[in-house]
Design brief:
219 residues, globular
Length: 219
């Protein structure tokens, strides 16, 4: 069996250290770019996705990355050596979104019909966790590779009602989330790969307007 090339990302010691050190900085910059008052806008997810895709380009070369994905492929965010990958990010605990369907009945239909179709690169962000909590066993979050076969296995084990956090009929949901129980089973599977990251916010003075200002100032 040919080894999945995404796994090389989790074996490159030099790159692992760069990810541990640089990803919190880049994600801090992304949050500053999408700050609205004291809240971070949902668009931050698109910027985080671009940061991860740029990481894949850096590791594997731009020619081996395809980003022009048809809109019909809602689960796929990028192709690496023609292998589809979904990129998911989450701040804190809970579960990440699988669908942004806002109608409760449609959301339940989505969950009932859902079959995982690709591997997931999942980034769990836990900003500024106290060191004592980490020392006491609380997982700090990080970059995870969740294989497709594990997703199918956990969905089969839990069933639709437990795999998803389903909206109640008559409510106005904000999409379909994977449940916290399902997520924990996925990320702590023996087949899931992880680069643990200590998420410290170190960027304080970044200007989201500087690059655009520089372009306006060019002759």
């Amino acid at each position: 069996m040919i080894k999945n090339k995404i796994l090389y990302l989790f074996e490159d010691e030099e790159l692992i250290m760069k990810i541990k050190n640089r990803l919190p900085i880049l994600f801090s910059m992304a949050e500053i770019e999408h700050k609205r008052g004291k809240r971070t806008g949902m668009e931050v997810g698109n910027t985080r996705e671009k940061i991860i895709i740029a990481l894949l380009m850096y590791k594997y070369g731009e020619d081996n990355i395809k980003t022009e994905i048809p809109t019909t492929e809602s689960e796929i965010d990028v192709m690496l050596f023609n292998n589809p990958i979904s990129i998911k990010t989450l701040t804190g605990d809970g579960g990440f979104k699988l669908s942004w369907t806002v109608d409760a009945q449609m959301a339940r239909k989505f969950a009932k019909d859902f079959v995982p179709t690709c591997d997931i690169l999942f980034i769990q962000i836990k900003w500024d966790l106290p060191e004592t909590k980490i020392k006491n066993g609380l997982h700090p979050g990080g970059l995870f590779f969740i294989p497709l076969n594990i997703q199918k296995e956990v969905l089969l084990q839990l069933g639709v009602e437990k795999y998803f956090k389903l909206p109640k009929l008559g409510t106005n949901p904000r999409g379909v989330e994977i449940s916290k129980e399902a997520l924990n089973r996925l990320i702590f599977s023996s087949e899931t790969k992880c680069i643990e990251i200590i998420w410290k916010k170190s960027v304080r003075s970044y200007s989201p307007y500087k690059r655009w200002l520089d372009l306006w100032m060019e002759e």
